[in-house]
């Protein structure tokens, strides 16, 4: 199944050039060839990419990569693929991969929808992480939000039976939308009554900590594929 929001000329992200630090640029040059997977319109052979066979978790929009690296470090039994469009974030995660010696993490710099459509075969993912996607908080921009029914259906198709979908947001109205969309997807089952407790494997980011101290909420959702 294919889902292409570009048919409506709507992107789920905004490309920001961003300035590369010296360390990020060095990581891209030195570690990119080893840890980056080039986008291609062909199914990805994960066993070849990682040099082993293990459960694969896909993270969409990893930002600067601190959470991604933390989870990969503490789950060495799983392989992780991080998808991000912004070059400074890619460089930052590659730097962390080098510093932590992470062998179970790879990076694809490309639009996640195209990666899912063309590189991830159906029923192959053990999990999908989408943490703090752009909330597009103005009402007229809500249609740009990533978590909508067609995209969730695509994620479910790519998950193996029993695989999980973990979302997190710090915007309450987006959390409400996420819960509605996931609950309406027949292929998913909620692991909680409503929102889930924060799983132990997801660390608090410094921005999340700051928000919590200010009384802001954070909502996690964890659903599994039936």
Explained architecture:
By secondary structure, the chain is α/β, with parallel strands linked by helices. It has one domain (38-225): 3-Layer(aba) Sandwich (Rossmann fold), CATH 3.40.50.150. It has helices spanning 22-35, 46-50, 66-74, 87-100, 112-118, 149-158, 172-184, 206-213; strands at 56-60, 79-83, 105-108, 125-131, 159-169, 188-190, 219-225. Helix 1 crosses helix 4 (87-100) and helix 3 runs parallel beside helix 4 (87-100). The chain is globular, with a radius of gyration of 17 Å.
Task: Using the coordinates above, name the CATH class.
Answer: Alpha Beta
Q: What helical percentage do the residues reach? A: 25-40%
Described by the principal axes of the CA atoms, the overall outline is: globular
SSE arrangement, N to C: HHEHEHEHEHEHEHE
* Beta-strand residue fraction: 15-25%
Helix and strand content put the structural class at alpha/beta
Contiguous helical run count: 8
Number of strands: 7
Major β-sheet annotation:
7 strands, mixed
CATH structural fold name: Rossmann fold
Distance between the termini: 18 Å
Could you give me the name of the CATH homologous superfamily? Vaccinia Virus protein VP39
Walk across the major sheet and give the strand order: 3-2-1-4-5-7-6
Question: pLDDT under 50 segments (min length 5)?
Answer: 5-15
CATH architecture: 3-Layer(aba) Sandwich
Number of separate structural domains: 1
Overall pLDDT score? 90
């Amino acid at each position: 199944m294919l889902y292409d929001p570009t048919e409506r000329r709507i992107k789920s992200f905004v490309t920001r050039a961003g300035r590369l630090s010296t360390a990020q640029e060095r990581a891209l040059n030195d570690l990119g060839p080893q840890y980056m997977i080039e986008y291609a319109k062909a199914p990805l052979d994960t066993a070849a990419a990682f040099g082993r066979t293990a459960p694969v978790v896909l993270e969409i929009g990893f930002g600067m990569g601190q959470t991604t690296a933390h989870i990969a470090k503490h789950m060495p039994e799983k392989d992780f693929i991080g998808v991000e469009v912004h070059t400074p974030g890619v460089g930052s995660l590659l730097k962390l991969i080098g510093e932590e010696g992470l062998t179970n993490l790879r990076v694809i710099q490309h639009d996640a929808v195209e990666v899912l459509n063309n590189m991830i075969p159906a029923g192959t993912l053990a999990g999908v992480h989408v943490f703090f996607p752009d909330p597009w908080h103005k009402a007229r921009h809500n249609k740009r939000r990533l978590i909508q029914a067609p995209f969730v259906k695509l994620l479910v198709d790519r998950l193996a039976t029993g695989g999980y979908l973990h979302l997190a947001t710090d915007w309450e109205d987006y959390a409400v939308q996420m819960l509605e969309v996931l609950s309406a997807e027949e292929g998913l089952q909620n692991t909680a009554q409503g929102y889930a407790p924060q799983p132990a494997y997801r660390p608090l980011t410094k921005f999340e900590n700051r928000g919590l101290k200010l009384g802001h909420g954070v909502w996690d959702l964890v659903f599994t594929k039936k």
